[in-house]
Amino acid sequence: MKTKILTLVLSLALAACAIPVTQSEIQQAKFTPQPKQTEIDKEVNAFLKMKISNPEAAKKECSPPRKAWARDLSYKPANFGWLVVCDVNTKDGQGNFGPLNAYMFLFTTSGVMTYDSSSFVNINNNVQFLDLIGK
């Protein structure tokens, strides 16, 4: 339940007033075919193996892929692709689950880009789902 609430809050935050991309940028954007679940799992698991100490014990729940744009820094150009948001709950040294962390994976024509949402000062300047633009 907490995972679904976090994902909903994150989705609503993404819909808020982001520094917009232009309609021209959206029309010129190139997208890969929608990633299959096996490709998503492979990328997420590889990332978690590098990022957390005990990835096998972590609980994760990922959203379905949606077209989006994202960027590391708000003044950089936007990257377009299929965005998957994963809520990950890791265990600490005593085996207790800690707080949820949200990681984002953008499948682009130039590869997969990963974003740690906690590194954004204001996530709305960095990520937005295309189906929420103009709503």
From TrEMBL:
Residues 1-18 form the signal peptide. Keywords: Signal. PROSITE patterns: PROKAR_LIPOPROTEIN. It comes from the Bacteria. This is Lipoprotein. It comes from Polynucleobacter brandtiae.
